[in-house]
Design brief:
Blueprint lengths: L5 H4 L54 E7 L5 E7 L1 H10 L3 E4 L4 E4 L8 E8 L6 E7 L30 H4 L1
Parallel strand pairs: 1-6
Antiparallel strand pairs: 1-2, 3-4, 5-6
Length: about 170
Amino acid sequence: MTDADPATEANVSVEDDPVDTADSQVDTADDTVDTTDDTVDTTDDTVDTADSQVDVDFGEDGLVPAIAQDVETGEVLMLAYVSPEALDRTRETGYAHYYSRSRGELWRKGGSSGHTQAVAEIRIDCDADTLLYLVDQAVGACHTGHRSCFYRTIDGGTVDGAERVFDPDEVY
């Protein structure tokens, strides 16, 4: 709040609209607010996540897409599909599990390469049909040797800083 005269700020001449302010003072002596009884007790407001778990909509094929994102940097690492069993295994072990549509089987990320994803948090979108795994990625997420599967642009370029972090011929 400024101390400037509002009439001056609005380009209005006080002389054109005289106001008698002698009796317009506000008495705030009785307008104090007592907040001593306004504390909020949150001891009974805890949420039991087991009872409030969101039901995932696995759709007709029984799968949902899951995006793996680096928990520290926010970098998007990969997208894969998750079945109910893969989600259960992820939650049980703390490591990302997915469902391979091409092989028709459950797989643990890093099972053959050692490039695991420790899952820090699982989020679900507003429609309950897409998951977000916030992960701590060991080495690289992409089978091509890159840290992220999203190392290329649609125009065929390579994203800055998207060098290979491992040699796939030595790992697979």
